[in-house]
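Board work, copied verbatim: Nucleoside-diphosphate-sugar epimerase
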Amino acid sequence: SILIIGACGQIGTELTLKLREINGKNSVIASDIREGNKELMKSGPFEFINAMDYNSISNIVDKYAINEIYLMAAMLSATGEKFPEKAWELNMDSLFNVLNLAKEGRVKKIFWPSSIAVFGPTTPKENTPQETIMEPSTVYGISKQTGERWCEYYFNKYGVDVRSIRYPGIISWKANPGGGTTDYAVEIYHKALLIGKYKSFLKKETKLPMMYMDDAIDATIQIMDAEPETIKVRSSYNLSAMSFSPEELALEIKKIVPEFTIKYKEDFRQSIADSWPKSIDDSSARKDWGWNHKYDIVKMSEKMLNNLHSKYKIL
Ligand code: VAH
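↓ predict structure ↓
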């Protein structure tokens, strides 16, 4: 069966729900350090796991005969800059725990998310290649770059079947993101419906690679279902669907919420965003295991506003 560590997070929540749809709820164990939202908690089995504690994972692996782990627990870019040591400890200890379970043959397959945060200020910013210079300037990016190196090492040295995707910013409505720099692109939809205005913490022209959650979930399941020999990259695959700036997103929202207004007041997250690429070349993922995105900024905005509209029961 499948274990999701960090099942209550923005991606973990929807990944758990989708995997339960496909595999049956009792063969997908959700776990986190805290409980998740109602929809997640009533959708199937839940266990408390501290991702940094090997034994707490090991016990659950034995209890449910787990053979696949999706490690979705991490401290993201903005919070990582406030608590560097904690971010490094959580992001690295949790990865070593699951890689070692696979190395010992107790788990067959691992999914571990990397991020476009592995790229830094010296990386080419447009159409960033799969292989390129990477000098990440955030603790989160450093931990993801190091994690990629360890994933490739455990694959080459111990035959561990670990697969990874460099997620761009991910936009969703079911569960809130926590502590990211791209989170403005989620908050803006809520604020557009609730108060008709938004103060962006990134400058209007800050273009970043983005993806709607349904595409991210489909890509994650697709790479895990792919035949091993099609996975040519064992560090982590570039992945993206679109790129946009706060100004472009606000324009899209105005088409549906005409009275919406936006202001810009950058904070410390601006320097994080400035260190990242503007657009990503994900041709390797498209070639190796058939990745193809379905959502552009128009389709995403319709989905986000329609779902949030009913979630908030706006009359
Ligand atoms: C963050 N949402 O903002 C995450 C992600 C590329 C962005 O890593 O930190």
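The chain is about 45% helix and 15% strand.
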